[in-house]
Amino acid sequence: MSQLVSQATQQLRQAVEDALRQAMAAGELPQADLPEFILEVPGDSAHGDWACNAAMAGARTFHAAPRKIAQSIVDHLDLAPTYFEKVEIAGPGFLNFTYRPAFYAGVLQDIHRLGQAYGRSDAGQGQRVLVEYVSANPTGPMHIGNARGGVLGDALSAVLEAAGYQVSREFYINDAGNQVNKYAASLEARYLQLYQGEEAVPFPEDGYQGPDVIANAKSFAELNGDKYVSVPSEERKAALIGYALPKNIQGLHDDLLRYRVEYDNWFHESTLHENGAVGRVVELLKEKGATYEKDGAVWFHGEEYGSEDFVLVRSNGVPTYVVPDIAYHYDKLVTRHFDLAIDVLGADHHGYVPRLKAALTALGVDASRLEVVLMQMVRLVRDGEIVKASKRSGKAITLVTLLEEVPVDAARFLFNSYEPNTRIDFDLDLAVQEDSQNPVYYVQYAHARICSILKKLESEGVAFRGLDAADAAALTDPSELALLRLLAAFPAEIAAAAEKYDPARITRFVIDVAGAFHRFYGACRILGAEDSVQQARIALCLGVRDVIRNALTMFKINVPESM
Questions:
Q1: What's the CA gap between 472 and 492, in Å, rounded?
Q2: CA distances from 421 to 38, 103, 148, 193, 344 (A)
Q3: Which phi and psi angles does 291 have, rounded to 5°?
Q4: Count of H helices and E strands in the chain?
Q5: Which helix (H) or strand (E) is 220 found in, with range?
Q6: DSSP string covering 388-444, please?
Q7: Please, which residues have CB within 8 angstroms of residue 75's CB and are 6 or more apart in sequence?
């Protein structure tokens, strides 16, 4: 919530409480403790700027009908020292309040004064947050789910920063465990096939079939020849993995950078094995009495901590996949002292989350410090049909092939237009359209249109003389007031997006701002308007321009000045 909006709501709450006290002092209401009531923005702007339920909340307290209580509040209400100019009683007793022009003048002044900082707040109070997202296995190219996860994690990090959190972005590299072993066996088979033939070297049934495996095996052979054909299998696989994984990880880095996704840290799972963290977390759980042995395996007492029981260490002494994950999150929250860890994961991980939280609880860590944002799957649509393969290559569409077809601005904007728990049908045709049907084009065009208007005014000799010459009281058209309400709400929208882990809230908000601006421009003249109105409307245009710019740049989307 912006400082101005916060100040206005504090004024309003104080005014309502004072009115209730005066009504009690006058004998209109019985003496009682003040009821707890809510101030909220009405869904319909026709109901004012803020609504208050104090009359309904006080019905039981004062043993009176809400309408009677509402009338008593209105009779004793003093709005003079507030940003509100009128109040109306609606329905069963709601109190609807309307801002006075001075409030909107303050909003425009805030935007002008703060510039690129408008919308930011200290809601997060500097808490240290680690956001982990994408974390794709370095065993092949990133798929469409990673494309959504990259935008979601990046956008979530951005709104958290804007809401006053200290944010670190992290990619967790799964460079250990079964998937890497499988990848090593796949590389080994492709390498040996180059020298011994495909018939002589069977490919693993569960191996990685991708063309990148063949390409890595060939480039390894070009570098090393047949040097590793006759060495022991483990030595050969170690050499192949040592060559291929860094290349694959660099490929992930490069592909994500093209997508404008950058990280503060790339964390290797292998370090948890090398520094003993995986073994230590099992020993810690044993010391806490949270394990038991069964059939030679070490089990976690999950039922005692809100989960099901599960195996930590197999009977052969090898930890299960969840143990490095427990060690990794212990490292985040205890070793590195982050206040909060947020994981962005696919919806197929829903069963994994209770296990992880239960283990953290057993380790003495407050499990509420781990938040997991689960996102639903993505389907690509072209010509109204589900698409599974790239038109160009005939193969599955990866992040790279998507960006060869769809502009980065469109991909980032459209993927961040839905709540994480909503399944996306990503329309490839819509993403490349250059018209108002494409949401990112629609918003960018609003910004470009404002820049064009300002240049046109300048060419006609109309100069903006500053906010002192712009009287917000001149902005009375419903389309102007709708825009002003949206501009005032921007900081609160960012704070809410951070609180609810829903950065798509800002995407939807900036679409609303663009739509409200287009309606305003259709309803209100600027060139040729009376001077005071003209200056106020220019100030409004500047405010809208800056809010659109701040929203788009927060999500690393271009803000063109002409289109």
A1: 21
A2: 28, 37, 12, 44, 11
A3: -130, 165
A4: 20, 15
A5: helix 211-224
A6: -B-TTTSSB-BHHHHHHHS-HHHHHHHHTTS-TTS-EEEEHHHHH--STTSHHHHHH
A7: 19, 23, 28
Please say whether the beta carbons of 153 and 131 come within 8 A. yes
The span from the CA of 185 to the CA of 139, in Å, is 12
Residue with tokens 């010509």: 383
Measured between alpha carbons, how far is 133 from 482 in angstroms, rounded to an integer?
A: 36
- Locate 530 and state its tokens: 């009376």
Query: Beta strand pairing status for 297-300 and 310-313?
Result: antiparallel
Strand order in the sheet with 370-375: 265-268, 166-173, 128-132, 340-346, 370-375
* Mean pLDDT value across residues 338-349: 94
Joined together, the tokens standing for residue 156 give: 């979530």
**pTM for the whole thing?**
0.90
Residue 234 burial by CB count (10 A; 0-12/13-18/19+): exposed, middle or buried?
exposed
Cβ atoms of 55 and 69 within 8 Å: the answer is yes
What pLDDT, in 10s, does the model give residues 52-107?
999 999 999 999 999 999 999 999 999 999 999 999 999 999 999 999 988 999 99
More confident residue, 48 or 152: 152
Is residue 363 within 8 Å of residue 281, measured between CB atoms? yes
CA separation for the pair 180, 173 (Å, rounded): 11
Predicted pLDDT of residue 43? 75
Spatial separation of the C-alpha atoms in residues 27 and 393, rounded to whole Å? 81
For 378, the enclosing helix (H) or strand (E) is strand 378-382
Q: Are 517 and 549 in contact (CB under 8 A)?
A: no
> What are the structure tokens assigned to 447, written together?
């910004």
CB 213 within 8 A of CB 191: no
Backbone angles phi, psi at 66, to 5 degrees: -55, -40
For tokens 């909503």, name the residue.
422
